[in-house]
Amino acid sequence: MKKNLIQDINIKKNKVVQKEIPILKKDEFYVNTKSTSYQEDSRDYFLDKNKKKDVGSSFAIWFLALFAVIFLLFAVSFLFSNAKILITPKSQDVTLNENLSAVKDSNIDGVSFNLIALNGEESKTLHGGELHNVNLKAKGKVLLYNNFSTTPQSLAIDTRLEGSNGKLYKTDQKITIPGVNKTGVPGSIEVGIYANEAGEDYNSDPLDFKIFGFKGTNKYEKIYARSVGKINGGMVGQISEVSDSEKESALIDLKNSLQAKLIQKAQDQIPSGFILFKDAVFLSIEDQNSEYKEDVLNLNIKGTLYGILFNEDKLTQKIVNDVISKNSEDSVYIQNLKNLKFSLINSSDLIGISDLKNLSFNLSGPVKIIWNIDNDKIINDVLGQNKKDFNPIMSKYQNIDSADLIMRPIWKTSFPDKIKKIKININEIK
Quick check: 231 and 267 in contact, CB under 8 A? Predict the structure, then answer.
């Protein structure tokens, strides 16, 4: 067997050793145990080194991924950044007892009022008790007109009126009919009437009347009357009569029911910017009828509800000027203004209320005056400003009692530079 010399490195002795390595012939096999061990050691060394490289690469990839996620979160948080300002406005508790005056003219600078009038009717049926014999005369109302002269015409109580149904009725009080006015409009006055005799024959739908005593004179055609509504209540016979106290109680219920219904109707029609105090409504009953049919009493009332509407801004400003300071320009509102008690100083104002032009009244009760907040101005003042400047900016507003800031994300040091990202919430004051 031929031998060739190769260099083998002996690591332990740190020197070069020459060894003879046999040259294998064909089909021969030689195993150098020491050489195989060395090869295995070398392989393990390089495997360990590669493993360390793999671990280092994995760590770097995870670190980069984590950094990317954190960066993305920061980017998203800044994209959706916003600021919310919670404001408690300045307020003042006041107990009012103010005498005020108003004019029926919404164009004036001072307190003004408008008048609304709503019509309605209510009816009720009462069943009688013990039977009674009755002789009832029909009753109603008429408007008497004087188209004869500019001179007023006086009529005595029980003046006979001849109806277009051919029956006679009488006035229930002494009256004076005004004369024709300067524009040629006949004078007129309302008066109650009753039938000349008892019985149902005198019950009637609206009629025209002449004054029986003027027959054959020039006044007969020029002084006349027309009934207001039906004439009814006439009856002769037995009825199951309702007691006076029961009837009176029923009429009170009807009036209260009619007033409540008309007040609700009025509330639904109040224009924006006006206020109707619950005590500033007055019900006028124009017609009240009672009619028996067999053992049943039918009650019916018709009336008009008058409501006094006030311009809320002008009334508020007047109260503020009187309570806080004269000529105050502070923008405020009164939280519970409509709960104040309203009362007329002169009850005579109710006479001819439909033509009311001037009004004296009193408002009393506890209220809370709250200063208005200009949201747009505040947002523009803080827009893009540093968060540390929030308190100094808010301290300039005398109409703010306190203000808190919620900034997102919490590490952001300045307000957003877009108006839509800043919101203001006004805390409710009780």
Answer: no
Total residue count of the chain as it appears in this document: 430
Q: State the pTM of this model.
A: 0.57
Contact 127, 243 (CB under 8 A): no
For residues 234 and 195, the answer to whether their CB atoms sit within 8 Å is yes
- What are the angstrom distances between the C-alpha of 209 and each of 126, 154, 227, 289? 33, 17, 8, 20
Phi and psi at residue 209, in whole multiples of 5°? -135, 150
DSSP structure class, residue 173: S
Summarize pLDDT for 257-311 with one digit per residue, the tens: 999 999 999 988 898 889 999 999 999 988 888 877 767 888 999 999 999 999 9
What the block records as the tokens of 228 is 């207001």
Residue 341 vs residues 97, 99, 399: alpha-carbon distances, Å:
9, 12, 28
Arithmetic mean of pLDDT over the chain: 83
Asked if 55 contacts 63 with a C-beta cutoff of 8 angstroms, the reply is no
What CA–CA distance (Å, rounded) separates 76 from 409?
Answer: 10
Which runs of consecutive H residues, i.e. helices, occur in 101-235?
A: 219-222
* Alpha-carbon distances of 412 from 41, 149, 258, 386, 409, rounded to whole Å: 58, 90, 63, 9, 6
Q: What does the pLDDT average to over 386-414?
A: 91
For residue range 67-124, list pLDDT tens digits in order. 665 555 555 555 567 899 999 999 999 999 999 999 887 676 778 898 999 999 999 9
Tell me the HSE value of 415 on the side-chain side, using a 13 A CA sphere.
Answer: 26
Amino acid at 365: G
Q: Cα dihedral sign for 329, 332, 338, 341?
A: negative
Residue 118 has phi, psi (to 5 degrees) of: -125, 135
Buried b (16+ CB within 10 A) or exposed e, 40-66: eeeeeeeeeeeeeeeeeeeeeeeeeee
> Can you tell me whether residue 412 is helix, strand or coil?
coil
Tokens 């050489």 belong to residue: 35
| Mean pLDDT along residues 326-348 | 84
